[in-house]
């Protein structure tokens, strides 16, 4: 397996929504607040009339009081009723022996239990079970005053951010770095931002959180979200390669479930070679129930020993030269990052001493960089994507610092929500991560003949930098945006949500 390609896998965050009354199938508060349409009716006591006076309004009879209750009027935006003595019409008449009404609960609708957010939790398979109807406050039957309170519930408190924007931002930056690397081919890009190690670390965190539920359900949900976008994309790639003379054998089964590298011809290699990431991610998902149990037996020793497989493959046994060997190399390279996600979720990194974390992280980065530069003759470059051992150690140290800083300092990037456009871009990148990753190489491939057509337009040839890679980078992103609009809905269908052009 070539190490020239890299990409991004689906990753997800958590959030909750609340609604007054009962749980809603829309956990984002989009459907407003539920009210009660009717109230139980009660017979009032007989009105008293007085000469030259208007009758008092009819009042409900409260059985626990011997005398009728005083007239009350609700005070707006408060949870109680104000005693006003008695109502006076014309010449007032006092009502003797009155007793105050029972206090009305400020919030007669207790908050329901939170439920997973289907946009942030990739394992949300069904809508939440409806909770029980809210219990009314004490005080007997519903009075006119309480009816007004129910019909106009108090304003909801501002909801906290539903997603962790720190992780969302890292995921969006990783996607941008992947597209930039495949456009410019910068060897140093992996050292500045090891996108694949970061993506596996984020995915490991979400997987550990999801495995709080039954493992078979979690694995099934992951497969359901990953495979339909892959199949949709694969139909176009396979048909294009068939048109260009490719005839597959039995290995075409890997285009159904990519447990191994799907086959293809040289014509479509740039498009299908990025599938190594999906294959590695799929294997991590299948192995995670076992890996998580093993990790929780001895977190720190297991985390340290997770770098041993890549050392064995590098210095002892290189593995078979086939699909199995390629999978072993990729799993060994990013195993530490995946387990770092477990460590973050379980609070292991937060409990570690800061000095120890910093020393270990810098040591791993230093060893990875040293190995990359001292073995350029062997790999032809210091590019981490060509050197599995250097990639494993550099990514391990880099991702460990990011995860530890997140846990230790409580970084959440909540301020990002105040930057509306930037926040919107981050949201789209995370909701369409699989689409962007699968289609970005095809977008870059199509950008080349499209730019060639621009040379036929004299104005474009004069004023546009058609021979610049930056121009191709921009055109590539325009085509990626087009693919997101045209093909992104498949991710919604895979997640059992209503298809949308943009999330």
* Radius of gyration over all CA atoms, rounded: 31 Å
Span of the ends, CA to CA: 34 Å
Class based on secondary structure composition and strand pairing: mainly alpha
Helix content: 40-55%
Number of strands: 2
What is the averaged pLDDT score?
78
Residue fraction in strands: under 5%
Contiguous low-pLDDT stretches (5 residues minimum) are 1-151, 157-161
Q: What's the story with the biggest beta sheet?
A: 2 strands, antiparallel
Write the H/E string, N to C: EEHHHHHHHHHHHHHHHHHHH
What does this structure look like?
The protein contains 19 helices and 2 strands. It has about 500 residues and is mostly helical. It has a two-stranded antiparallel ribbon. Strand 1 and strand 2 form a beta hairpin. It is globular.
Topology of this structure?
Elements: E1 72-74, E2 81-83, H1 144-151, H2 165-184, H3 189-192, H4 195-210, H5 215-243, H6 269-272, H7 276-297, H8 299-305, H9 308-315, H10 323-345, H11 348-351, H12 354-374, H13 376-379, H14 388-409, H15 420-431, H16 433-454, H17 458-463, H18 469-487, H19 489-494
Antiparallel strand pairs: 1-2
Task: Please summarize what this structure is.
By secondary structure, this protein is an all-alpha fold.
Please tag this protein with its features.
503 residues; mainly alpha; two-stranded antiparallel ribbon; disordered N terminus
């Amino acid at each position: 397996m070539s190490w020239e390609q890299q990409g991004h896998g689906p990753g997800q965050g958590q959030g909750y929504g609340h609604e007054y009354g009962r749980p809603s199938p829309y956990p984002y508060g989009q459907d407003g607040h539920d009210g009660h349409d009717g109230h139980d009716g009660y017979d009032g006591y007989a009105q008293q009339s007085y000469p030259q006076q208007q009758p008092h309004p009819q009042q409900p009879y409260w059985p626990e009081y011997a005398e009728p209750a005083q007239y009350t009027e609700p005070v707006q935006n408060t949870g109680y009723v104000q005693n006003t003595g008695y109502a006076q019409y014309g010449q007032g008449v006092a009502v003797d022996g009155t007793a105050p009404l029972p206090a009305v609960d400020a919030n007669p609708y207790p908050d329901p239990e939170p439920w997973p957010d289907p946009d942030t939790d990739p394992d949300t398979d069904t809508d939440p079970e409806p909770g029980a109807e809210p219990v009314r406050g004490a005080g007997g039957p519903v009075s006119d005053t309480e009816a007004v309170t129910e019909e106009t519930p108090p304003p909801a408190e501002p909801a906290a951010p539903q997603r962790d924007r720190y992780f969302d931002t890292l995921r969006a930056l990783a996607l941008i770095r992947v597209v930039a690397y495949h456009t410019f081919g910068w060897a140093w890009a992996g050292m500045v931002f090891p996108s694949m190690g970061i993506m596996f670390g984020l995915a490991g965190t979400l997987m550990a959180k999801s495995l709080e539920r039954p493992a078979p359900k979690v694995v099934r949900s992951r497969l359901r979200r990953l495979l339909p976008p892959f199949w949709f994309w694969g139909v176009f790639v396979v048909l294009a390669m068939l048109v260009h003379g490719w005839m597959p054998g039995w290995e075409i089964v890997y285009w159904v479930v990519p447990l191994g590298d799907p086959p293809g011809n040289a014509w479509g290699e740039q498009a299908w070679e990025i599938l190594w990431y999906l294959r590695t991610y799929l294997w991590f998902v299948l192995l995670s129930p076992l890996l998580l149990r093993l990790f929780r037996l001895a977190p720190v020793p297991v985390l340290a020993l997770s770098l041993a497989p890549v050392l064995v493959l590098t210095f002892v046994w290189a593995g078979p030269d086939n699909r199995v060997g390629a999978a072993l190399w990729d799993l060994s390279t990013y195993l530490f990052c995946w387990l770092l996600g477990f460590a973050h979720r379980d609070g292991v990194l937060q409990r570690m001493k800061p000095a120890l974390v910093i020393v270990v992280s810098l040591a791993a980065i230093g060893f990875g960089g040293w190995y990359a530069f001292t073995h350029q003759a062997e790999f032809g470059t210091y590019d981490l994507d060509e050197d599995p051992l250097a990639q494993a150690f550099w990514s391990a140290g880099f991702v460990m610092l990011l995860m530890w800083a997140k846990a230790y300092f409580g970084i959440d990037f909540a301020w990002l929500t105040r930057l509306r456009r930037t926040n919107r871009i981050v949201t789209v990148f995370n909701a369409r991560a699989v689409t962007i990753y699968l289609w970005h190489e095809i977008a870059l491939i199509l950008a080349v003949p499209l730019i060639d057509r621009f040379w036929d337009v004299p104005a474009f040839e004069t004023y546009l930098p058609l021979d610049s890679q930056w121009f191709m980078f921009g055109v590539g992103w325009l085509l990626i945006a087009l693919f997101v609009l045209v093909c992104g809905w498949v991710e919604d269908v895979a997640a059992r949500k209503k298809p949308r052009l943009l999330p």
